[in-house]
Amino acid sequence: MDFVFMSLPTNLTELKQLPEAVLNSPFKTAALTLAVLCNYGNNPDATYEMLDFLKGPENVSEYEKQFIRDRLKGKEYKAFSYFNGATPENGYTPFKPYTISVTENPYSFPEENWATLYVKSSGADSSRGIKLRKKPSTGQWFLNDIQCLSDIRVPMASDPWA
Fold first, then answer.
1. Which of 39, 91, 92, 123 has a CB 3.0–4.6 Å from the CB of 77, allowing a cystine?
2. Is the pLDDT of residue 160 over 90?
3. Cα(104)–Cα(56) distance, integer angstroms
């Protein structure tokens, strides 16, 4: 499923204004997760606030904040690498409007109210997961675990072997 964003959210108000923010599909929540992570280099606190919204009844834990910080500090390009047009050659600068594809596989829905969906980075050889959980009382899908922040190929301009 493809999602198109004219701009990426920089704060909670902008996030909530996006049509996908109804969170009635795990695909929407997964796409928003990457859109939100693109803001990390500009404002980590606003990024965590938006992730709190995507996590629903839970907040981003200190452990999760440290995990995100460890994976993205100095490597903010990782989140952008999932959007169309971003490549190691262009420093992971995506095309505008920002378009991201979220996919499923036969194992994406292992049990009721749980899903792991996949996004593809142009800097990695295989798709990476985002785990989601449905809240039955509201029908909304919330972020449970970001599994897509492991290292990818560095931008060509930063690669001493390029």
1. 92
2. no
3. 22
